[in-house]
C-alpha cells in the first residue's frame, strides 16, 4: 500500500503546471484553446495570473522547459498560447474584483513590480487596506524599465495593472521610502510591511525561505528580486507566498503549518510517461513541428486563431490515469489509486467500504497498464483477508452466501469423485477438470478422459473436486488451506506425478501450492495430438472466431500457443483481438465479484464481449464462456469444437444454464469419470 501511495502518478500534475511557480493550469487552458474555447481558457489563466498578456510575451516559461513533448521533439508554445488567449478574450468586465469585508488592518507594500503587485492583490481580496509605495510614476516596476517596448507594449502593462485600482488598492507613485517617507513611519502606521523592491537591496535582508518573514523584524516580509526570485513569474509567486504569511501573522496563526515550498512554488512533478505510454497518435503527421508565429519588422505578432488551435492540439495532455481508463471498477470509487489507498491509510481499512476491495476482478490489467507496475491486485487481496478475519472468517458481502453454497456442494461427496487409472495401471497422471467445465459439458469431460487414456498409455486417473480458489479469492486464507489440503491428500493417495488441469485458476493454484507437477490440458494437447477424426473439421466453416484468453494464465505463453494450435489443426479461422494473450481483459467472473457486485461484473462482461470483431468468441474456460454470452457474443468452449461437429453460424444459440442444471451437469460429469475407472 505504501508503494502505491508514494509512487502512483495518478494525482501528479503535468510538468507544465508543477514547474510554474504560480502553478498555473497550463494543460487545461491549452486544451481549451485547442477546442476553440478561448473565453474559457482565459478564465483558467486568470485564476492564478493577473498578467496574462505580459507573461505571454516575456515569461521565461519554465513550463515549456519542462514540457514532456519537448523531450520528444519541440515543447508546446505555452507562453504564446497564453498571449493569444489574453489578446483575444481577456475582457475587463470578466475580471474578478470581489473582495472580503474590510478587516481594519493596514498593509504597506514597497515596490510595484510583479511581486509587490501580486502581494497587494491577494491581501486586498482578503479585506486588508493595502497601500503600495513606488518611486516610479508608472506601473510595472523594472519590467517597464528594462524590457523594450516592442517586446512588451506599455499599454499591456497598464491595462493589466489596472486591476489594482479596481480592487481599491491605494497607490502612491513617485514616493521613495527613506526620502519622501521614513521606514519608521511605515512601521508605526501599518500592521505589516512587504518589501518587494529590486535586487540591489537583497544583501540587507535575512529572511525565512518559506515564510519570507525577516528574522529580525517579524512584521516585515520580503518578495521578488530582493528575496530570491529571478524571473517575473517567480516574483509573483513570492508575492503570493508573502501575502499568505502576512495574513497568518496578523491572525495569530502558525506561519509554517501545512505549508511547503513545493506546494507554493514550482517543483518537479513525479509524473513522467515513457514514450510507449504517450497517447495514441501523439507523433502523427504535423504534430512534431512547433508552430512559429510571424515576426514583422522585429515584432512578434502572436498566433492567429488557426495557428493557436494547431499548436494547442500538439499537447500530450499529460496525465497518468491509464489504470483508470482500463479498469471498469476503479472509476466508481476514486480518481486514482493514490487517492484511494491514501484513504485506506488515513481512515483505516475498517472504515472504508469493503465493497471496494470486493469489486476487484483480480485480473492484474491495471498493473500491466501502469508505467511503474504498481500491484493493486495484491493490496486488494490483502484487504479482503483483513475483512474476513474481522468478520469471523466470513465475507462481509451478502452476495457471497452463494459462494458458500457453491463450496458446500463443491466439496460434498455427491459431486466429488476420485478415480485411479483403470485396469490396475499406475496412476501417473490425474485429470482435474475443475468446477466450471464439468458444470457445462459432461460429455466433453468424458471425451477428454478417453483421449488422455488413449494417448498416455491408460495411466490416467481423475479427481473431481474444487481446487479451493473461491475461498482463496475471498480472502478466507485458513479455509483455503484446509480445503486445498483435502485435494492434496486425494492426489497423494492415488500416487499421481502430474496433474492435468482444464481450468486456468486450478493451474495457478496447483502451480503455487501443489506438490505434483502441473500441466494445462491446452499445452498438453499439442504434444499428444487431437482426435484424428477432428483434424480439419472446421475447414470451410462460415464462422471466424475471436479467442478470449483467460486472465489467470495471461503470462503462460504455452497455453496461448496451444489454443491457437488447436484451432489451426481443427481448421477454424481465427481473428486476434487487440487485447489478447498477455494483454487479455477479464471476462467479468474474476475475483468472485458476480454475486457480490453484479453491476461491476456486468460492465466488465459487456465491454469484453463487445470487443469481438466477428461475433463469435471461443474460450477455454467455461466461466469465461458464460460471461461472453452474458455480454452478447456467441460463445463456445473450445471443447465444443474439439469434440463436436463442424460449427457454422446457423448453430449459434444460447448455451447458458441455470444453477440447478449446472449442478445436474456436474453430477453427470462425475458419472462420466467414474465409469472410466474400470
Automatic annotation (TrEMBL):
PANTHER family: GLUTAMATE SYNTHASE [NADPH] SMALL CHAIN, GLUTAMATE SYNTHASE [NADPH] SMALL CHAIN-RELATED. InterPro entries: Cys_rich_dom, DPD_II, FAD/NAD-bd_sf, FAD/NAD-binding_dom, Helical_ferredxn. It holds the Pfam family Pyr_redox_2. This is Pyridine nucleotide-disulfide oxidoreductase. Residues 7-92 form the Dihydroprymidine dehydrogenase domain. Residues 106-203 form the FAD/NAD(P)-binding domain. Transmembrane segments: none annotated. It comes from Cetobacterium somerae ATCC BAA-474. One of its GO terms (molecular function) is oxidoreductase activity. Residues 429-509, 547-625 form the Cysteine-rich domain.
